Write the structure tokens for this entry.
Amino acid sequence: MIKNFIKYPISRTARKKVRNYLKEKQMNNIKLIMTLLVKNEEDILETNIRFHKEMGIDGFIVTSHNSTDRTNEILEQLKQEGLVLEIIYETIPEYKQDLFVDRMIKLAKKKYHADWIINADADEFYYSKDLNFKKTLFKYNKTNINVLMVDSTFLFPDDRDDFLNCPYFVTKPFQEFEAEMLNIKQDNNMQLFIGSQGCTKVIHKTKNYKKIAMGNHSVKIKFQKQINSSEISLYHYHVKNYNETTKKITRYIDSAKYMPNGQGNHIKKMIEDYNNGLYREKYNSQYNENIRNFLLNEGVVSIDKSISNFIKWKGITNKYD
């Protein structure tokens, strides 16, 4: 047998095929679970789940916090399809985001043997430059890296109903010195676009997991080794359009009052403006065509169709509208 092998050695092409096969098998063996914490997300939930499934997520564990629209119905149908693994119906009034997510992480680890976790909200779309999370995560397979830090890229809404087709994102906020040079530092309408957007999220391994932070902004893991990810981006549709944003505000009015000081300040401010009849004016002053064109010209806002193009390429559609 050895003599035959020496006489007829395996070709370079065959060796490459074997290596690629073994690599792909190891890559596919990574168990990747996404947790979702949702409340009245019928406008975006199904697209979010189907999108991330096409990006390589193996399954979803979802907590629905006092949803009253079609969210729960959609989740049950997606569970019947096998996309959603578990649905937790949470009924307490408090928005204990970190505790809800911690519970889902532990379930993903213990019951579904997840290796990696992505914790998300329904308006967050994670995008791998490899078009496959597992291909990206496999690069860290033989390293001690267990946390990836991912910066959010926020939508600049153009107030269309099909907000997922809006191509405008805040990709390079003004530095302080730039704002001073342009005499916009004191402009309240520009405050959202000056300085760091300050919304880093984490993707993490389950091994040695201890605790997730409020908002999924950080995580505690024993022997923690984290890096900033350049291969995974987070597109955040935090303000989709005026109508959907006011719906978001009203659904958090009850739970926001239970948030401790220092948490949820952005939504608390939006609720305050909404209750005082000021939100429409503030929305229009911050998100309008003149400001958008100015920010495009300055390179603060960019046209990025990554999410909408991937949705079209994969033919992602909603069955349960």
Q: What stands out?
A: Residues 15-314 form a domain with the Spore Coat Polysaccharide Biosynthesis Protein SpsA; Chain A fold (CATH 3.90.550.10). The chain has a mean pLDDT of 91.
